[in-house]
From TrEMBL:
It is found in: Secreted. This is Pancreatic lipase-related protein 2. Residues 58-304 form the Lipase domain. The keyword Secreted applies. The keyword Transit peptide does not apply. Residues 1-16 form the signal peptide. Belongs to the AB hydrolase superfamily. Lipase family. It comes from Papilio xuthus (Asian swallowtail butterfly).
């Protein structure tokens, strides 16, 4: 009876949930992750990073490629170059419009499907600037090296956005940074470089391995509003370790279907990718609505009874905070 009384207090939100209930368990040393062709790559979380590559990335911001898409050039990019004002002023970039920045994850590049899917959703929804960031040189390295290099890539993106602001006066209040997996931590570091001034950051299933206690991970101070969408995180009821961080990291954190296993998915990579698929659908339809939870136990048990809030979308003035649960269908638009 006493145990049930204490548990009921946790569920109702009157007592804080112990951290062990929702903090991820330690990752195994070796993880399998499929690359862009679906071939499994083994990750050794204790491997030595490639310090030569990291030094190159840190000292050469030109390793980031910035590709602009607008309604005037929806599929053929214009390359924007750091410290080259002409590349910006001669482009279709319009500082009067919102700017969406998309950053891919590990083993991805500018041609990865999530970039075009999210780009098209935004351009079809509203007139805006879409900038796809290609950081393939580092993203194509081993996971440990890529993780170590994330802060430098993010800082480079932050400096580029500061340059964009100085050339065009495009306000940070009109900027929305969207990052998937390791890209979520990149946009977090870009926001940090800009002092948290950008209007919004959306982290699409931010990477978990090596990032749970990492001081450079995406967090709520990186932008005016930071939203996490978690689809492949580990949990007490998940027998495998997901690729996502699985814990609240932003101003508002959404856990579709509990945040670790998605309808219609049989693999972890499917669960992981569902984050950007759900985000794309939310931009188009704005139909995915989460209900606020007092704590993570309520979320996992699917007994949240708080206020309702739309997940994702392209709103630059969102201000809701907390943990949110929603259930979705298994196919688009979910």
């Amino acid at each position: 009876m006493k145990l049930w009384f204490i548990l009921s207090l946790f569920i109702s939100g009157y007592v804080a949930l112990p951290s062990f209930v929702y903090n991820e368990v330690p990752y195994q040393r070796y993880l399998n992750f499929p690359d862009a062709e679906g071939i499994l790559q083994t990750i050794d979380l204790e491997a030595q990073p490639d310090f030569e590559l990291l030094n190159e990335i840190e000292n050469d911001s030109a390793n980031n490629l910035y590709l602009l898409f607008t309604r005037a050039n929806p599929t053929t990019p214009q390359t924007l170059v750091m410290d080259d004002a002409d590349s910006i002023t001669a482009s279709n970039f319009n500082p009067e419009l919102p700017t969406v920045v998309i950053v891919h994850g590990w083993l991805n590049n500018q041609n990865t499907g999530l970039n075009s899917v999210i780009r098209d959703a935004h351009l079809q929804k509203a007139d805006c600037n879409v900038i796809v960031v290609d950081w393939e040189k580092l993203a194509g390295s081993d996971y440990v090296t890529a993780s170590f290099g994330v802060p430098a890539v993010g800082q480079g993106l932050g400096r580029f956005l500061a340059f964009l602001n100085s050339v065009t006066e495009a306000p940070y209040s009109s900027m929305h940074l969207v990052g998937f997996s390791l890209g979520a931590h990149i946009v977090g570091n870009a926001g940090k470089e800009l002092g948290g001034q950008v209007a919004r950051i959306t982290g699409l299933d931010p990477s978990g391995p090596l990032w749970t206690a990492n001081q450079n991970r995406l967090n709520a101070s990186n932008a005016v509003y930071v939203e996490g969408i978690h689809t492949d995180g580990p949990s007490g009821v998940n027998p495998t370790y997901g690729f996502g961080i699985g814990i609240p990291i932003g101003t508002a954190d959404f856990f579709p279907n509990g945040g670790y296993s998605q309808p219609g998915c049989l693999t972890s990579i499917c669960d992981h990718n569902r984050s950007w698929e759900l985000y794309r659908a939310s931009v188009t339809y704005n139909h995915l609505i989460g209900r606020k939870c007092f704590n993570m136990l309520q979320m996992l048990m699917n007994i949240c009874r708080g206020t309702t809030v739309h997940m994702g979308n392209d709103n630059l003035t969102k201000s809701e905070s907390g943990i949110f649960r929603l259930d979705t269908g298994w196919r688009y638009p979910y």
